[in-house]
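Please, why this fold?
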Amino acid sequence: MNAHLQESSTVQLAAVDAARPPPHKFGRLMNNPRLRRSQHIHSAVVTGAGLSGVIAAIWLALLVKPVSSMDVSLFLVFFLAIGLGVTVGFHRHFTHRSFQASEPVRATLAILGCMAAQGPVVFWVALHRLHHEFSDRPGDPHSPNLFGTSLWQKTRGLLHAYIGWTVTHEVPNANYYARDLLADRKIMWVNRRYYFWIALGLVLPTAIGGLWTMTWLGAVEGFLWGGLVRMFAVHNIIWWITSLAHVFGTHDFRSKDHSTNNFWMALPTLGESWHNNHHSFPTCANLRFEWWQIDISGMVIKVLERVGLAWNVHAPAPEDLVSGRIQ
């Protein structure tokens, strides 16, 4: 982004800040220190579990048994399924309502998203809607751009946006940000069983690994690669976007924040790295605006639409793409 565009963007953000009330007003946040502390403990525990799994998997591969095709298969299958639960389900369907879907599809996406251990669907949606309302402005729970302009301040902002925010953020009021989900009985049934779905996401690869090899070691490998390592990797889908995709990359469309597009993160984030596309057109289901932009999540939504399991799939009007593009 050139200096003129940066200056214009900063002025635009300042104008929006002046007109927008802070998030602690009008019931946007929960004034409940105990709930806030429990959320932070949850984040620390699942982050520690994922990192411990990565360390244990490396130790096992170096000293006990090399990584096998089963390990890779279990990691990829569960990473893809649960990652799509977050990107297609939690993000594009439940948060932004970019498409409608059948009840079985909605329930499946909600369950898979819960298996990621990033919080129940209602909490995840409320937190992400809070982020969009205050993106890169005071009130954004994970902006890397609110700490100053020096090298140290930028580094501190990136660390905060990558992982620091997970143990410091405020708790959004779901009755304010996710009332539509609170009124959905089927989704609330899934939401209340959040910890069961986390456990299921760990038990399934463990059982498959054990049955695949008929050994306890195979079960341990399944638990590590399809469970904890996968959990850490899916968390990074979000952490890379909350941090890197608001600092590095191209700002191709006008938006009221510093969101960017990144080709190199497109595959591992299942298409979420077209983040400037997303922030410019948040209800868009498919973030592929150029032929070379890879959006696996958007492809899945297209397949669901073609087989009749999704409909009212939102897309920006061609004239909006033209007028919104930064020349």
